[in-house]
Amino acid sequence: HDRRFWFSARQDLERELSFQQGSGLYYHFYKRMLAAPSFEEGFYQLVVDNGTVSGQTINSVERLFLYPELILSFIYRISGGQDYLEPIYFYIGAVLGLQAFYVTALFVCSWMMSGTWLAGMLTVSWYLINRQDVSKVDQAVPLRDNWALPYFSCQVAALTGFLITNISSAAEMFCSLIMSISTFTFLLLWEHAHYVLFVQGLCLLLMDSLDLIPQRKTDHIQRIYLSSLVLVYLFHFQNCSLLGSPLLSLLIGFVLARYFQRRMKMGPFVARLLKLLLHLHLVFTCGITFSYLMKKLLPAAESHFLLKVLEVKFGLKSTSDFVTNFLLCQDGLQTAGQDLFLRLTQTSVLPFYFLVLSICLLSTLQTVYRRLSGQPISSRLRLEDGRIGEQPAVIYHVFHSLVFGFLTLMFDGMKYLWTPYVCMLTAFGVCSSELWMTVFKWLKLKSVHPVVLSLILSTAVPTIICFSLWREFYPRVLSELIDLQEFYEPDLVELINWIRSQAPAAAAFAGSPQLLGTIKLCSGSVVTSLPIFTDVDLLRRTEDTYQVYGMRSAEDVYKRLTAQKTSYVIVEESICNQVWIKNGCRVKDLLDISNRHVIHSKGEMFSLSKHGRFCQEIKMDYSPYTNYFTRVFWNRSYHVYKVNSVLSFQF
Predict the structure, then answer these.
(1) Is-contact 247 225, C-beta < 8 A?
(2) Per the UniProt record, which residue ranges are transmembrane (predicted)?
(3) Based on the domain organization, do 12 and 123 belong to the same domain?
(4) Confidence of residue 651 (pLDDT cuts 50, 70, 90)
(5) Domain of 596?
(6) Residue 107 lies in a domain
């Protein structure tokens, strides 16, 4: 991190500007907590916050999920960190330390499943080599997922240990405790956590329905989900979105379906298969009904809006709505490109992943058939049995990998939940003697003793892989560490310095969400919106601000900005003069479609607006634009206009 941004040689302002994608907004609240006279007073200021979004008093802790900053500022205060470490180093060190915790959890998970530390080392090696696709910490340190995903990794590791068949009661209790703590923390830190746990819950539902996991363990995991949801609901000031979460709907549907269908796992193959289909139908029917009732009873509209976005994403409907199309243009919601799979292939993880997944999946399907036929699962498997698909932990990771892999094909942002476990599952597979024994059992190998050969391959194959990775990628890693890069934006530094020195303390700024996040971090000024793409209200405010790049009249833009109590509006050259993007995601294009200012006919585009593009017309400095706006600052990248409180009509 230091060599990429030349961090230690920079001033405080330039260090803060290295927090990209608007993520510095979260660090601003950490600074506010440290600047407050006491922790209690700082906490109250965030709960009743009228200095962040113009014209609104918001609960920043609930709306922005600021518990990481609250906890870290509290630790920094009581530990006396100010005596030996700068706040920004303490913050970055905590996030990067969590990434080490993330890798450690993957190491432990792979070790538990395979029984050898070599699998853990191979997992870590693949993780580091593919770090571009396993974590966002290289791009933006303070993002919520950089705080939360390490706890999800810990939860998965604890769940893996909990699912192991021959685990002792003490170890099972320890895994249950770790799983409870990590599930609660994961939900507390990230607004999308309940969606991730919903996908995990689907995997466990399928395992339980197919009788691949003891029912008592399923019930225990569901109690952990439910208790964590209730606690997080209270900690987040009765956040209604948690009551309408798909995870809660799934839990309700599962409990009701089990109550109505108590003898599902009995009978011949065809009867059990029909009961399974009926059971899944009951679960989803009850869950969807509960979710529908919650939507009618609760004011939260997040799930309804998310459903609308997904309908447009999958082509079920089309829309001209700016916010919907703007969200679908974000990198995380784009379809995963071929370069992702090319990078994973070049690091050798993807070919071995397909091999391991295919073997485990086929063995799992055999186990499913045996269970539906009424055959019990052996409680104590031997190596020579060659049934890796009968291990509940392996079955879970197969389902986990398949579901998150399918989601990654549709949403590029899901790769951060899939790729780390690709590294872990692949390392486990090539180091597992049970996996090789399963293959030899299918091949009916007799020329060489299969147990001996499987033990040899489980050591030889990962050793060869590790040696080839060391030979090819170790020099690259060293060269990256030696290479001293620089991150510098002189125009942005000039803008921030002007705001700090010339703008009134109570001024409210309007601009793009990422820029406003940076302004909030570096100057503390009030802004009209925030780079939070899960809040529909903030997204609608962003749409109003973005009208400066549309073909709107000066009066119309002025009314929209004054409705948000804007003092200054910032026009960015990079957005106003953005070149053509192939997928049509330019802000100007999205606005023109939403405002119905253009139509497409027979491959031609026609303008229907009688006004020119505001961001270009206002630079001409003529009436009526000068009546409503006064330019007070400009450089190559940014133009700042004061929104006149008293109109002066000049002709």
Answers:
(1) yes
(2) 88-113, 147-164, 171-189, 243-261, 273-294, 350-372, 417-439, 451-470
(3) no
(4) very low
(5) 503-643
(6) yes
